[in-house]
């Protein structure tokens, strides 16, 4: 946003980017004096970029810094080891509950409505994720295709795997890209292609530290705190589930028809399998 800001805001923004640590842990008066602007200007700057005020903006910077300094050690293993099994289990459940609660707290209904409308309006839907996240992308693909009559493609695997699919991305298409620490290098390539072709990019990630954060048209932030070097995906899975249900309810007549066709296709498939099994039972040579 910096190049499009008024000159006074550009001055503030540039200072913040260059002195993040001091901004995070100094008072508004100290920072305003250092930049050479009024405290009121800092408040207006924070509101201009979407925060309720300067204090909320400052807390966001502190949160980002904590994430970068220690992205995985959210729960102290040593403390858990010293607890009884019941208390340990309670804390682990509480951690997952917090992941879900914080994820939902970051979401606004208007954002999900915009995403749902974009899915309805888009010519084609692309879903992208790498590593562990690719499995969640496949879940999202299945739920979309089971309930909606839309053209959905998945971008995953190595560059040579996804290049034949990504080459078809065009203006009017939308890309859902999911990436969490450690962020896969491939996401930079995918995001760049989307923006070069004037497509819409919806990003599901955990932090503004994500390398393609600034490229996204809309960001859905999912809290992923975990004891492991993998992430907790309870927030992401829930958001995707809610999103598909919103689509289903908004276009119920279309969704019901699509769901019925999916069930019919499943039934015909199982019928063929059952028929084949009976034939094998009567004539083992057919196997």
Structural overview:
The chain has about 290 residues and is α/β, with parallel strands linked by helices. The chain has 3 domains: about 1-70, Winged helix-like DNA-binding domain superfamily/Winged helix DNA-binding domain (Arc Repressor Mutant, subunit A); about 105-250, 3-Layer(aba) Sandwich (Rossmann fold); about 255-285. It contains 13 helices and 5 strands. It has a 5-stranded parallel beta sheet with strand order 2-1-3-4-5, with helices on both faces. α4 crosses α5. The longest helix has about 30 residues, at about 250-280. The N and C termini lie far apart (about 65 Å).
List the helices and strands and how they pair.
Layout: H1 7-18, H2 20-25, H3 28-35, H4 39-48, H5 54-69, H6 77-81, H7 85-105, H8 109-121, E1 125-129, H9 133-147, E2 152-155, H10 159-166, E3 174-178, H11 186-196, E4 200-205, E5 218-221, H12 234-250, H13 252-282
Parallel strand pairs: 1-2, 1-3, 3-4, 4-5
């Amino acid at each position: 946003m910096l190049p499009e800001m008024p000159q006074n805001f550009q001055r503030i923004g540039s200072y913040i980017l260059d002195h993040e640590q001091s901004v995070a842990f100094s008072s508004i008066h100290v920072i305003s004096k250092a930049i050479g602007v009024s405290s009121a200007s800092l408040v207006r700057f924070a509101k201009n970029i979407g925060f309720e005020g300067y204090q909320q903006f400052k807390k966001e910077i502190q949160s980002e810094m904590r994430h970068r300094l220690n992205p995985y050690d959210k729960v102290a293993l040593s403390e858990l080891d010293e607890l009884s099994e019941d208390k340990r289990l309670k804390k682990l459940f509480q951690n997952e509950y917090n992941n879900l609660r914080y994820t939902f707290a970051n979401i606004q209904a208007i954002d999900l409505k915009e995403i749902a409308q974009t899915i309805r309006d888009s010519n084609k839907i692309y879903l992208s994720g790498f590593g562990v996240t690719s499995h969640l992308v496949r879940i999202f693909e299945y739920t979309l295709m089971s309930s909606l009559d839309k053209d959905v493609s998945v971008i995953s695997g190595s560059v040579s795997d996804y290049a034949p699919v990504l080459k078809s991305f065009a203006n009017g298409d939308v890309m859902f890209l999911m990436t969490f620490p450690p962020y896969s290098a491939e996401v930079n390539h995918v995001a760049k292609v989307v923006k070069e072709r004037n497509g819409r990019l919806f990003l599901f990630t955990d932090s503004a530290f994500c390398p393609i954060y600034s490229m996204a048209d809309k960001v859905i932030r999912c809290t992923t705190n975990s004891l492991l070097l993998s992430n907790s995906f309870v927030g992401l899975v829930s958001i995707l589930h809610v999103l598909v249900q919103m689509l289903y309810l908004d276009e119920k007549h279309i969704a019901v028809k699509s769901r019925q066709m999916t069930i019919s296709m499943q039934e015909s498939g199982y019928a063929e399998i059952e028929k084949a099994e009976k034939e094998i039972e009567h004539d083992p040579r057919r196997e």
